[in-house]
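Exercise: predict the structure of this protein bound to 2-acetamido-2-deoxy-beta-D-glucopyranose.
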Amino acid sequence: MKLSPSTLAAVLATLAGNTDARTLTQQSSNTKNLTFDVLDYVDPLIGTANGGHVFAGATLPFGMAKAVADSTADQQGGFASDSSTISGFSHMHDSGTGGSASLGNFPLFPNPGCPDNDLNLCTYRYQSRAIGFSNESIIAQPGYFSIDLDSGIKGETTVTNHTALYRFTFPSSGTTAPMIFADLIDLPQSRTNGTASVNATTGRITGTGTFSPSFGIGNYDLHFCVDFSGADIYDTGVFVNDRAGNEPKTVRTLDDGVDNDESYSAGAFTRFSPGSLSVIARVGVSFISVDKACSNGETEIPEFNFEGTKDAAQTIWREKLSSVSIDATGVSDEFQTIFWSGLYRAHISPQDYTGENPLWDSIEPYYDSYYCIWDSFRAIHQLITLVDPLSQSRMVRSLIDIYRHEGFLPDCRMSLCKGYTQGGSNADVLITEAYLKNITDIDWSTAYEAVIKDAEVEPTNWGIEGRGGLTSWKNLGYIPTDDFDPYGQGPLTRSISRTVEYAYDDYCIAILAKALGKTDDYDKYIQRATNWYNMFDPNTTSLGYAGFLQVRYPNGTWGYQDPQFCSALLDFTSCYLNPDGHETYEGSTWLYTFYVPQDMASLIDALGGQEAFIDRLTFFHESGLLYVGDEQSFLPVYQFHYGGRPGLSAKQAHAYIPSQFNTSVSGIPGNDDSGAMGSFSTLSMIGVWPVPGQDVYLINPPFFKEVNITHGITGKIATIRNVNFDPTYTDIYIQKVTRDGKTWTNNWIDHSFFENGGVLEITTGATESDWGTSVKDLPPSLASYKF
Ligand SMILES: *[C@@H]1O[C@H](CO)[C@@H](O)[C@H](O)[C@H]1NC(C)=O
Ligand SMILES: *[C@@H]1O[C@H](CO)[C@@H](O)[C@H](O)[C@H]1NC(C)=O
Ligand SMILES: *[C@@H]1O[C@H](CO)[C@@H](O)[C@H](O)[C@H]1NC(C)=O
Ligand SMILES: *[C@@H]1O[C@H](CO)[C@@H](O)[C@H](O)[C@H]1NC(C)=O
Ligand SMILES: *[C@@H]1O[C@H](CO)[C@@H](O)[C@H](O)[C@H]1NC(C)=O
Ligand SMILES: *[C@@H]1O[C@H](CO)[C@@H](O)[C@H](O)[C@H]1NC(C)=O
Ligand SMILES: *[C@@H]1O[C@H](CO)[C@@H](O)[C@H](O)[C@H]1NC(C)=O
Ligand SMILES: *[C@@H]1O[C@H](CO)[C@@H](O)[C@H](O)[C@H]1NC(C)=O
Ligand SMILES: *[C@@H]1O[C@H](CO)[C@@H](O)[C@H](O)[C@H]1NC(C)=O
Ligand SMILES: *[C@@H]1O[C@H](CO)[C@@H](O)[C@H](O)[C@H]1NC(C)=O
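Solution:
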């Protein structure tokens, strides 16, 4: 179904809420190059190799259904470009995660028929059915994925919010009955029990399973419902490992399986008349019930219309990405593709499970797959805030609702379960930032209650929520190494990184307290915001630099962890979330020493002043100590602004893009972590770097001649224009800036620019200038700058 222009305008108007259809039509004809299709510049395969774990399949923005062909190796996000076999097509995924694979429940597997139509000559088992594919056949677009399997079957998929739609095209020479079966397995092979049934008349396959989350505790039930269209039913039945039969029509797998084998394959199949060329399979999914899974499919895709569903999905994506427009004159397709693909990936998660939450009744939105906030609070939510503040509002509301019903804000959450906390309680940062950026419809009094609870109440299991060591935190002013903490349990590692994160979380709480008029609380938390300094040892040295965060025991004496330890230069992988994970999480003390976004002036002072700071930060980037593939390294790319050298931030951004962020399948330096890497490159190319938790954007020249961002609520346009734009990126140094025609010397700007619109005109040149270098030009800091 191709939409006519007027239908399209109406669809867009509906999606945009109360916007008048005419306005949208006018906007698109006025401001868009009519031959430009943003989807041509989105490549979902970026980051699908070399551990990027990006989900490459079909999804709607923040949709629950995420369908793709699943690889047999490195399949955290389903499909991996560097894997050579496929184990099936599944309907739900997470994107860019580390650790183990996520979701991938109830995969469909098509085959052209069993030899001699003998059911027992087909291969069902997960371990043996994997099949090769043609690399050249892969087509990945927003809302669509296609692959040709070595069995001669083409598998294509598209989605709505809770339904995956597949079109399987079988080889035309087939004389056997093509089969599609659904396996009760999931990608991490976490199923404990499950059941699948098939209806002999309709071929409908339904089922339920209990699974475990991929980075958290507990379990969840998921339900599915497969309906077929396009071919006559030949027969139906069930299979268990490599055996199958037409009777019975239901199969169960037991909790802990007969042989304790969670990789035990079992499920139901439907075969189609020999010669059938094409079958549409519609898979509704639901966390509520089988009936809900079926009704999701029936209501969202009543007609089994593959092309229409795909077109609708792609229309939704075009509209979603249209809050940003760029003048790409002179800029390569490579850079445009990095830009738009990053923006696209920021819209994959968190996932909107509103109406699908069996855990509690609520009228609030419910989003899941905050995977994890420790990763997403540094760039993803800032980008969503810029381009889609309504979604950000719904997400913050859902965080607060999770607090209401679970008792704590999450730091990580997936598949209805609590995920592991990696550092601080960084939802506090998101909540304060939402307040400062006028995110609407939030219950601020409950939000405040939630962040105060993080700061004051230690949960029994602080490995999954809240913070640990709160008694020490309050009494000693740091999280001691080898803490004595009988009040709760969690991994007693990361004392350094938790200290700086807790200090920053408390800073954000202080700012919210102040905004809400709670001055006593402000005084208390702003004091705690200085706690980072209690772990700062001026006597620790490394590579010629003095003064680093350092291990500190409850009795106040210093211990020792080499500041290089867990940097890209020394024992890089020794600081994970395991019992001997050491004192800095996924990074070195070199890295964490820079994490004082609340008080960069004091940090600069502690590190020996402006020149020493700039020298150290430059060395950090150029020595190979910094690994830009983990999110804590994003802010240090831009912290030159605080030392009065904004030009060096621009220089570093260009050093990493495209050398570390590019369009190859391995074109991101680390796990995408639900779009974090993509958000880094897109925000960098827009030219404003948001400091998480603050109403501060550090100004850099965009990678384009002009970028417009239309605010999702006010409709106002913020234009960032690059005068003297040099597409070779030699002249990347700001000479002067005007805001709405007036000279702007601050090297940062606040959110009112995006909310109220305006023009930021940046003039660039070949060398650094005086712009943004004086103390009065620098971003806010708790203490005053002393230079
Ligand atoms: C419109 O976009 C197309 C594709 O990006 C490009 O080739 C063409 O030059 C653009 N036209 C104008 C007038 O900018
Ligand atoms: C497809 O390409 C990837 C990446 O180059 C490679 O690892 C894989 O082996 C190829 N698969 C096939 C079937 O050629
Ligand atoms: C999908 O869900 C979003 C909310 O996340 C909603 O705005 C949108 O209308 C839904 N799309 C369709 C086609 O139902
Ligand atoms: C599987 O077992 C769990 C308890 O272990 C139960 O909560 C769940 O409902 C069961 N699921 C199915 C599909 O039987
Ligand atoms: C199979 O589906 C048909 C059509 O919906 C329905 O009438 C019948 O009751 C179903 N059979 C079973 C066993 O549920
Ligand atoms: C940005 O918006 C302004 C005002 O509507 C418009 O004149 C300009 O062409 C737009 N630029 C881009 C790159 O879309
Ligand atoms: C640093 O070393 C000097 C000289 O040994 C000592 O006096 C000082 O107390 C040390 N500082 C800290 C914070 O331990
Ligand atoms: C402080 O505690 C550490 C670690 O338990 C210990 O090695 C050190 O001797 C203690 N120092 C003092 C002065 O008690
Ligand atoms: C693209 O990025 C990857 C990952 O960061 C990097 O390894 C590779 O060298 C880059 N490729 C180019 C051509 O710069
Ligand atoms: C937030 O909204 C208020 C009033 O609606 C306005 O005065 C203020 O400038 C806005 N703040 C930002 C950061 O846009």
